[in-house]
Amino acid sequence: MDEPFSALDPISREQLQQDIQKLQLDIKKTIVFVTHDIDEAMALGDRVCLMRAGEIVQLDIPQNLILHPANPFVQDFIGDRKTPWLTAVDVLCDPHSPHLVSWSAFKQNQIPAVSPLFAEDEEGKLAGEWIGGELVHNPPVLQNDMRLHDALSIMEKYNKDALPVIKHGKIQGVLSYKNIVAYLASKNRQEVGTR
Hints:
CATH class of the largest domain: Alpha Beta
CATH topology of the largest domain: CBS-domain
Radius of gyration: 18 Å
Helix content: 25-40%
Order of helices and strands: HHEEHHHEHEEEEHEEH
Shape: globular
CATH architecture of the largest domain: Roll
Oligomer: single chain
Number of helices: 8
Number of strands: 9
CATH superfamily of the largest domain: CBS-domain
Strand order of the largest sheet: 3-4-5-6
Structural class: alpha/beta
Distance between the termini: 43 Å
Number of domains: 2
């Protein structure tokens, strides 16, 4: 798809972005989507390929482009994202969280003494939450493109210190209050360092 939404108004564009995500889940096919809109690439892509003069500069998951740019060109291109993407929960979530246990470890009864604790099945989907010695299905989750403010509201509503982040039905990691505090502290250090 070569810039399919470039000539659309913002409302239609946002709706079609949501539609293409649903369609991709239904047809389960790889879609190569060309766009010059970095926020669109970050929102839609499982992997984003940033090119310069016909050469691949960085091919990575969206949050790594933001948090771990391969070189100064990528850093300048991505910039300091002052958009909803920067506060999207998948940028802040921890893919190696102590609040997340693999299905194989779970089946072998290697269950950490952490609360809340979520189990990830073999396909990378949420199997459930471990509560009181039982696996409870369909716990609350956060969508990857949710604004941080909305994610915090859900965490407060369910009285959870951490919740899994889902993108296309798969776990991206776990967002916790600890992640949020660490992120804000790092941003504060960066701002102090540039003064």
